[in-house]
Amino acid sequence: MSMNIRFMSWNVTGIMSAASHLHEALNREHIDICGISEHWLYEENRHLFYSIHKDYEAVVISDFSLHTLADQRCRKGGVAIMWHRKLSDMISVVDSDDDRIAIVKLVTGTDIWYFIQVYLPTSRYGADIFTDYIAKLDDICTNFSLNGSVILMGDFNARLSGPRVPNYVNHRGQLLQRLMDRHQLCALSTSDVCRGPLFSYVQSDDGSSSLIDHIIINSSKVDLVCDCAVLEHGFLDVSNHRPLLCELRIPLPERMDHHCSKMMRFSYKWITTGTSENVSAYRESLEEAIEQSTLANTRELTCEDDIDKFTDELVTCIQSTSERSLVKRKFCKFLKPYWNEHLKDLHRNMWRLRKEWIAAGRPRDPSSATFRLYKNAKCLFRKRHRHISEDHVIDLNNEIEKCADVSQSSFWSLVKRRCKSSSGAVGAEMNFNGSVVRDPALLTTCWGQYFENIYSLSTCDHFDSNFEAEINKSVTNTLASHSVKSQDFDEIPLQVVKRMITKLESN
Asked: Is the dihedral of CA 445, 447, 450, 451 positive or negative?
């Protein structure tokens, strides 16, 4: 099962003149999500976005310099994201706290997708401002990639190189490319999968063209791309930019059969008192539950269905006993394993200064003390958080590598810790021979082939085939000489098996 998501990004250079073209494009291209840059709307005029198309909702962010009390209202910038109402139950808005970045979260089954529309500063702004925004995007990718997949789209005002436009990157593009390399991202607009014109921006004065608009996704998700294009259809009549279109085929988890009951998992904790009273109370409660169930009357398990029913009944008894006897442990999903007192102090200080900044009316003037202190505290926390989280991942990967050949139980425990914050189950997406596999049945086949290749004979110039035949013959003769007919064995009673199991370690 899968669902197709078609999304588009366009720098409209003023939404009022481009509204009719945008309405037509939403219908013609069957767009599900649309990112907009440079809509040029004042804060009090954001409602005009909702009248462009009756079937779409939107989050609209105006340029922060356009508030009512600003000395100069130049009506520039602003970003927005529109989405079809059919996705309303799956989409939520994420606060970006910036007037050049808009973010929505799309939840599809077990997958989470973050669509991030950006409008990075033009060359009229200093290089340090552009660098600051690259650092902010780096923080966003670091935080959101822990929970899902990140899709960056919009006007980056940076040139990237790729198969379509080789040797095209500029200094801004180099900064953006380093960000992409750190997070294993790739630009579809410069890849072979993209069709249409080579350039998305056409300067109206001299007719020069460039590719500064991009759609950037995770490199492992490129196989999900069904279509990617730089659109034409007369968009240059109202804007210097052409829109970028992309379609993803997102796999969905298979639905369980109605007769299959989904087993719920809970987290419990013991109320430890230094004695075994709690264990004894739990054991007595469990024995009582088993005696009242059908397990006490079960004498013989003759087929797989009997075993399945017996197991389900036993698990039900254990869960019901746990519900009555144990105290549930509160799970704090926001806590990170690397979180420490230093990060906690920085985070508290940032939020304290943020409250002061909000109480002062959210000033954006760099000369404002509350704004400057809040931004500095936020930058310090993000920088320290990024370094500590990266160090934690490096240490965890090193520990996994050490355990790979020493302890399988420790290895898989660490792998689960490494992947527990991902959007899907561990191993739900694997790369086999350069191809990403997500289908459960195909995953099983690929793993089988993988282990078969490990234990299969590899090419060897000095392999002795005569020795192989001799060994095979010896093994066959040994097995034949020591074979015993099944009737020579006495039937082992179930009680004997139970008694032997209790003597084993951990029963």
From this structure: negative
- Sign of the dihedral through C-alpha 436, 439, 444, 446: negative
**Full-model pTM:** 0.65
Judge whether 220 and 436 are in contact, CB under 8 Å.
Answer: yes
**pLDDT single digits (tens) 370-409:** 988 988 898 888 888 888 888 887 887 788 777 777 777 7
Q: Please, are residues 4 and 249 in contact by the beta-carbon 8 Å criterion?
A: yes
Query: Based on the number of CB atoms within 10 Å of its own CB, is 336 exposed (0-12), middle (13-18) or buried (19 or more)?
Result: middle
CA distance linking residue 376 with residue 371, whole number of Å: 9
User: Which CA distances in Å does 69 have to 42, 43, 66, 294?
Assistant: 12, 11, 8, 75
Which DSSP string do the residues of 382-432 spell out, in sequence order? HHHHHHHHHHHHHHHHHHHHHHTTT-HHHHHHHHHHHHTTSSS-TTSSEEE
Token pair of 134, please? 């690259």
Dump pLDDT digits (tens) for 459-472. Answer: 666 777 788 889 88
- The hierarchical CATH code for the domain 2-251 is 3.60.10.10
d(CA 404, CA 264): 31
